[in-house]
């Protein structure tokens, strides 16, 4: 998987989805899911997942019991003379039965779930194959008597002859016991032939062939001449039985051989379906939706939630218009900026893979050909790179590789960090200038006031921050568009117990303009929070007014109806 996808934790999202896969090939397909070529393919995958979700919710589930990957075994049937052994034939038949049942379940609802039916209709019914296998073979691989009339007849004859031979041998043992001591009086088999165990001292009492001795040589295993003919007949019958079993297994293999390509393709479709069923199950568990896809770079997230966060996370609401290309986020650490970056990046990756995202369906996610991500520490001991050098190397590569700005997304966390603030800030501004000039959709986080100020000079850039509760000194994770963030470093340091004389001295090292700037932002955020609270109150009052209005309208209608009846 590409490094930028790992940086965005797309691998972890796929692993979370893969938990719902029922087959190992389906799980592997999911972990290596391909990107869609464009909007049409995304729409098809969305529609397929949607059909699966609705089928499972309202009509029937699709089961993948006993579906194992036997494609390699089936593929070998193309080799002349190759045969699949009975035990494996039975397991393969179970898989063919499962695939037939998958087709049957979807077929029943084909008019309702057309996209799903189009996906599975290439799987034919394999009933003629698996029913023959089940009729002929036991689960452990033993061939059943019912496999053929000839086999049943041979086995009946073998059973009858074996009973006859055993009866004769028991009679012989009883006669010997009448005249001599026999510590062992049972019938057994050696080299495929019935024999009786005799003490070495009694071996002359019975005419026959010695087939074996005990370890101490005190016992001999003798085939009496009196049953030699029956033993010979039994051997012939056993050979006939083996030949008939071989013919049956060959016939079952020949039944499959013409269908090799169809069986292999059906396995592939079934495992793909398992992958999409896993996506559907994950989507249902996370309330994911089929969002709108923009090929023009438009981005609007409504009530978006990071797919790996638990319930209760503050939803993300974000809109970047077609005229806005750069969103610059500032504010304190641990405020949620990095999670916001990853959420946006993940939504783009999920949509490109045809995976519904945890956001309102009216959200708009852009289709991006390239995504450049620089999140976290780029330090590399192996490459002898410092954190700053690592970031610069990435930025140089990024600038050289942007070929199609309209289909490129840039996500930069802590742009310019790792060196002297004035120089780092200058490089950050230069990068932002270039991205703005090229009109590349970019989400950038920074702690540099100079970069925040520079964003105001760019017509297609907008500042933003994640709301911070100054009173309680904790983030609320609510995005504020148009409002830059303050660092709150002094406030946080004081809250965590840094001595007041240190705090006061620190303030002396700050310019008055910096203190006023941070105070202004704090007041702006507080004012914004107040406006939001007032708006919520007004919206609540409007809803009450609407309810009262609806109630009055209903009463008026009833009154008019009653009056008309009286008149």
Automatic annotation (TrEMBL):
Give the matching InterPro entries.
DNA_mismatch_repair_MutS_C (IPR000432), DNA_mismatch_repair_MutS_core (IPR007696), DNA_mismatch_repair_MutS_sf (IPR036187), MutS (IPR045076), MutS2 (IPR005747), P-loop_NTPase (IPR027417)
Every copy of the DNA mismatch repair proteins mutS family domain together lies at 324-511
- Give the record's GO biological process terms: mismatch repair; negative regulation of DNA recombination
Pfam families this protein is in? MutS_V
Does this entry carry the keyword DNA-binding? Answer: yes
Coiled-coil intervals in this record? 503-555
Which GO MF terms are attached to this record?
Answer: ATP binding; ATP hydrolysis activity; ATP-dependent DNA damage sensor activity; endonuclease activity; mismatched DNA binding
What keywords are annotated for this sequence in UniProt?
A: ATP-binding, Coiled coil, DNA-binding, Nucleotide-binding
Domain called DNA mismatch repair protein MutS core: residue spans: 8-312
- Protein name stated in the entry: DNA mismatch repair proteins mutS family domain-containing protein
The protein's organism comes out as Candidatus Wallbacteria bacterium GWC2_49_35
């Amino acid at each position: 998987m590409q490094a930028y996808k790992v940086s965005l934790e797309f691998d972890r999202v796929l692993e979370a989805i893969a938990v719902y896969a029922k087959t190992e090939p389906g799980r592997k397909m999911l972990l290596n899911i391909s990107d869609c070529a464009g909007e049409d393919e995304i729409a098809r995958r969305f529609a397929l997942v949607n059909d699966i979700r609705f089928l499972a919710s309202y009509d029937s589930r699709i089961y993948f019991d006993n579906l194992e990957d036997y494609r390699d075994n089936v593929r070998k049937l193309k080799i002349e003379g190759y045969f699949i052994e009975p035990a494996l034939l039975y397991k393969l038949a179970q898989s063919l039965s499962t695939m037939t049942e998958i087709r049957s379940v979807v077929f029943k609802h084909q008019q309702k779930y057309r996209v799903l039916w189009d996906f599975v209709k290439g799987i034919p019914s394999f009933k003629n194959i698996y029913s023959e296998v089940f009729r002929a073979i036991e689960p452990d691989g033993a061939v059943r008597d019912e496999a053929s009339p000839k086999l049943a007849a041979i086995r009946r004859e073998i059973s009858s002859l074996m009973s006859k031979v055993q009866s004769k041998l028991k009679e012989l043992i009883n006669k010997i016991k009448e005249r001599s001591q026999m510590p062992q009086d049972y019938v057994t088999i050696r080299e495929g032939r019935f024999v009786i165990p005799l003490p070495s001292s009694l071996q002359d009492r019975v005419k026959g062939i010695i087939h074996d001795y005990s370890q101490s040589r005190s016992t001999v295993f003798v085939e009496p001449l009196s049953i030699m003919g029956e033993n010979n007949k039994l051997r012939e019958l056993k050979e006939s039985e083996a030949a008939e079993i071989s013919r049956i297994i060959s016939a079952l293999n020949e039944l499959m051989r013409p269908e090799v390509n169809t069986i292999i393709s059906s396995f592939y479709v079934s495992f793909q379906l398992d992958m999409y069923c896993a996506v559907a199950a994950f989507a249902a568990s996370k309330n994911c939706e089929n969002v709108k896809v923009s090929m023009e770079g438009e981005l609007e997230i409504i009530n978006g939630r990071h797919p790996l966060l638990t319930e209760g996370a503050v939803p993300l609401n974000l809109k970047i218009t077609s005229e806005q290309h750069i969103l610059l986020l500032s504010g304190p650490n641990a405020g949620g900026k990095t999670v916001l970056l990853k959420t946006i990046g993940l939504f783009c990756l999920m949509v490109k893979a045809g995976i519904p995202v945890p956001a309102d369906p009216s959200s708009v996610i852009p289709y991006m050909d390239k995504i450049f991500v620089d999140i976290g520490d780029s330090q590399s001991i192996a490459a002898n790179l410092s954190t700053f050098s690592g970031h610069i190397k990435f930025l140089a590569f990024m600038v050289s590789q942007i070929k199609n700005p309209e289909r490129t997304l840039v996500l930069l966390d802590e742009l310019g960090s790792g060196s002297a603030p004035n120089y780092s800030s200058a490089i950050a501004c230069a990068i932002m200038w270039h991205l703005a000039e090229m009109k590349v959709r970019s989400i950038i986080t920074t702690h540099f006031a100079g970069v925040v100020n520079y964003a105001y000079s760019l017509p297609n850039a907008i500042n933003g921050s994640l709301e911070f509760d100054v009173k309680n000194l904790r983030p609320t994770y609510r995005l504020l568009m148009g409002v830059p963030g303050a660092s709150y470093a002094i406030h946080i340091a004081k809250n965590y117990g840094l001595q007041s004389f240190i705090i006061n001295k620190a303030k002396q090292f700050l310019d008055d303009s910096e203190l006023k700037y941070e105070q202004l932002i704090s007041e702006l955020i507080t004012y914004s929070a107040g406006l939001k609270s007032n708006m919520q109150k007004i919206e609540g009052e409007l809803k009450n007014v609407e309810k009262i209005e609806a109630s009055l309208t209903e009463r008026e209608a009833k009154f008019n109806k009653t009056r008309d009846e009286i008149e």
